[in-house]
């Protein structure tokens, strides 16, 4: 993936809807973790419901943006995909700094990637404190059960110890729990805590959610996760 060179705006700043005059709130989500844990695959599965077996390391920082519809509310998510390679580490703190959500991903088949979670969470807390960011810990590749080196219980305990609000295991290859992850994240955002919030209701756009992977790519389409029926009991908890 290529390095992103421009951004739309500061995270959390309201964007004026052209037709309604109401605000469409935007939230910056930064993905962190060691190289090869599946950060890019997690974003790709969520945005386009696809998976690529051919691994390509993210170079620097990549940026994507998408509108998400849930519970009659619509928000704009800015997804920042960071490189796990050591040579790009100096870039990452500046992208953490104004993030609303930090998702730290590890590979359940690689114990070392799990052990590095502490460092990533420390980086987030150094830049954002503990009250200004929603911390999520995600154990990816849970379809590889025969190669598992980190148990669900270990992941849950780590999440609680580090103060993460959300812990979940996912499989980007199988598409397991990915929508549930973003659903939990969305419901942790201010719009879903405040019933009187001023949000654009794009029901017509959500009805055409199949257009999320349309010809205009990131600029059009609404991801509708309001009717998701994935099983949340396996590998997920509200920590």
UniProtKB/TrEMBL annotation:
GO terms for cellular component: cytosol; Golgi apparatus. GO terms for molecular function: GTP binding; GTPase activity. Keywords: GTP-binding, Lipoprotein, Nucleotide-binding, Prenylation. Pfam families: Ras (PF00071). CDD domains: Rab6. The keyword GTP-binding applies. It is a lipid-anchor. Its main location: membrane. InterPro entries: P-loop_NTPase, Rab, Small_GTP-bd, Small_GTPase. It is found in: Endomembrane system. Gene3D superfamilies: P-loop containing nucleotide triphosphate hydrolases. PROSITE patterns: RAB, RAS, RHO. The keyword Zinc-finger does not apply. Belongs to the small GTPase superfamily. Rab family. This is Rab GTPase ypt6.
């Amino acid at each position: 993936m290529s390095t992103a060179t421009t951004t739309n705006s500061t995270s959390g700043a309201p964007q004026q809807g052209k037709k309604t005059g109401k605000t469409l709130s935007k939230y910056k989500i930064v993905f962190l973790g060691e190289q090869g844990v599946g950060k890019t695959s997690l974003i790709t599965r969520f945005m386009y419901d696809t998976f690529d077996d051919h691994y390509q390391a993210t170079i620097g920082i990549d940026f994507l943006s998408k509108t998400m519809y849930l519970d009659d509310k619509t928000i704009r998510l800015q997804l920042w995909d960071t490189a796990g390679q050591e040579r790009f580490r100096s870039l990452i703190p500046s992208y953490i700094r104004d993030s609303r959500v930090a998702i730290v991903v590890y590979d359940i088949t690689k114990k070392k990637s799990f052990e590095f979670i502490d460092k990533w969470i420390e980086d987030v807390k150094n830049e954002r404190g503990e009250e200004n960011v929603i911390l999520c810990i995600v154990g990816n590749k849970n379809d590889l059960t025969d190669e598992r080196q980190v148990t669900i219980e270990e992941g849950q305990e780590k999440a609680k110890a580090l103060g993460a609000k959300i812990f979940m295991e996912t499989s980007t290859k199988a598409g397991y729990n990915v929508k549930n992850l973003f659903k939990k994240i969305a419901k942790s955002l201010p719009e879903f805590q405040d019933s009187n919030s001023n949000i654009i209701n794009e029901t017509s756009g959500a009805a055409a959610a199949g257009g999320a992977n349309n010809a205009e790519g990131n600029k059009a389409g609404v991801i509708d996760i309001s009717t998701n029926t994935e099983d949340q009991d396996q590998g997920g908890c509200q920590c």
